[in-house]
Amino acid sequence: MYSLAWKWIMKVFIPLYCISFLVLTACVGGSGFRPTVAPDSSRYTRTVLAEGLDEPMEMVILPGNDVLFVERKGGVRLYKDATKELRTVANFEVFSGIEDGLLGVVADPDYERNHWLYFYYAVAGDSAVNRLSRFEFRNDSLSRPSETVILEIPTQRIYCCHSAGYLKFDKQGNLYLSTGDNTNAEETEGYTPVDERAGRGLADDQATAANTNDLRGKILRIKPLPQGGYAIPEGNLFAKGTPKTRPEIYAMGIRNPYRFSIDAETGYLYFGEVGPDTQVEAPDGEKMSYDEINQVREPGFFGWPYFLGNNDVFPKYNYETKAEEPGKDPANPINESPNNTGLRELPPAQPAMIWYGKTNSKYFPLVGNGGASAMAGPVFYSKHFKNAPYKLSDYYDGKLFIYEWIRGWIMAVSFDEQGNFAGMEPFLDHWKFDAPVDMQFAPDGAIYLLEYGTNWFAKNTNARLIRIEYAEGNRNPIPAITMDSQYGAAPFTVQLSSAGTIDHDGSDQLDYHWEIDGEAYTGPTVSHTFSANGNHKVVLTVTDGHGGSGETQRMVYVGNTPPEVRISTKGNRSFYWDDSALDYRVFITDKEEQVDPERISVSFGYIPHGKDAAIVLTNGQDAASFQYLKGQTLISSLDCKSCHSVDQESVGPTYTAIAKRYARQDGATEFLAGKIIQGGSGNWGERAMSPHPELAREDAVEVVNYIRSLSSKGEKLPLQGELPLTAHQGQEGVYLLTASYRDGGANGIDALVARDYVSLRYPLLQAEDFDAGNVAIATVTTAFMAYVYGIVHDTYIRFNAIDLSGVARMGFRVQPNGSGGNIVVRQGSKDGPVVCTVTVPAGQYSGAEDGWQELSASVKGELDNKDLYLTFENPSATTHLFHLDWLKFYRKP
Q: What's the pTM value of the predicted model, to 2 decimals?
């Protein structure tokens, strides 16, 4: 009996156990079950390592977490992790017109032994050639004599656009290089560049991207040789020796493959295709202005300039007759252009994996709308980062990261078991990125990101190198630095604080370590004196005692003291009264220069909705231009900033240039509003502007009104005068007087702006609008009123910066509902000097709308501009005292 039972167990249970164990092991994958929920955003920390970069392009993460990156105009920069400093280690002489320049850099797979770096750049001089070369990089120095030329690609430098130039190695040691189509992209008349007219070869993508005998508009795959040059790996699109082809081609039919990656497990290549702006409609009615993310499982033709998106077909546009002709067949595309030097019959076109246009996508709704520049980033595998301290959650195992230059997002893309697209989701969407241009994983699991910044072809203050760390278990602190002043003349003493530092684990004991000008400090606050002019970096590292660490930095600028602007008035600085005026005088001083009257701005206006005054002041806007605030706010929320700025050149015209052109044109507002909504080209060259069909017409008009307001500076007020207060209607608005001065910069420090203002509101404050307090607010919807209720002894409310000069007495609308007591008005603090007291009698009213009355008392003392505290007192009361609706200020006769 025993033996039979044991045999049954051995025969049935043990196999089941083994199967269960194998299934469990497969699910665990050696690192636990894959999470089904994305990690909380608090588990990521972002550190800015360097900023103010000049068009960063591509980076290499070197041993020790040093980061080398290239800038388009030729700079080679090195961030040293050990010293937290950014160095310039080389400058290439490059042709940086159109989109060319120093575009790509990658390290050799055997870098730690041979110290080889590869660069892709447009050679300076008259010869239109882009070059791939190898250099030695040792001891933080790039050896220019070590240059070994690998590959050169002839280009044209007459027309813009598309150079690409990204570089990556696969695990077999093959080097991939993306090249743009290098074709005239600005004279396409709303179609694709297939201009076959005589003399228009540079406007025909059939000569480059769709040409099997040209290296542009491609992703190339080669094997660099130690002595220079390269070999052709097996398995490229065309076998070596095939007539009218280039064996270097891996993928072709690409417009602008700006960023790509190679899946280290599957070998698949993913590339982002920056798309065109066309007027052609796809079968589903959407404009065929798609950007794409493509999956390349094997070499192939990816459609441009004949197809886009899901192999949607472009009509063949005849530039001679201006007529549409039948498009090509995706299964059998034929390149019949007279400018084609390659094969006539092309491989079948491959559809995109993801595609989206300028409007909301019905297929991929998460991508948003507006301008677009799609980028393909790395694929994450947990097993590649074993024991890495900052590796992402296993939730992201096997997912591809894509990102958007213009829209500023990152997405994680999932695949099914066959490797097909299965879905996407936002990644780090609690942060907005400023034109992300490169994304890579470091060996320790951290993410490094280059941000190009706001304006095209410019050095941007928000062009940054950042590091993002993920922490499971104990979370890293998130440091913050505050300072009492950021600008000043040497010697300049700054008080620095770690106020605002966050520790999501809450109970950790934090340690604070500061590095300033080579000196080290500890503690949550420090004081440091800067003795030399220049830009000084302050680095704060916060550790939590459990292995968690976070770092942040800020700059202190020494050499230019901010100017001082002060508005004085003999009147009240808080309130206006009927039939009154505001006298004023503006005082401006600057330690480094004589004040220039041309840089002074004094403005006055009435703002109908008083709470909007805070927006005006936050934006640094003049009061008189408040009427354009809505347009300014709207334009900052759209994608316009990716191509335009107020006065700095970018890829599109400046707003001031647009304002000047259309300053006196009849119908310009409606015309420009239509352009914003519909998009188009032809007014500032052929570069197309993205449409904004979701924008309401009236909002587009607000945007245009703001832009057109920039055509003139408006009338300046004198530095002193008297302004009548006659524009108000009702009690909601405020008068705002602003004065500002921009200095000329000094000692290498940029210009600084200083402002002062006087804001006058109606002399009645609703009690429930207090700035601080420990009382409750009741809302009576039937009476459309709110008030402070349930007042008990020793509670208070506070109003910030209330000027009592010229005030004779104060009135209070109260409801005697309770034990009664005193309202004691004090200045400066809860225990400050008493300026006014009223006594509210005891009473009882059952209705919230009954029994209201006004009590008043005269004010006394030093009646200047201080915080106003209303304290409520009745030490013998055991219940609430009374209710308070508002307080009013009466001026002296």
A: 0.75
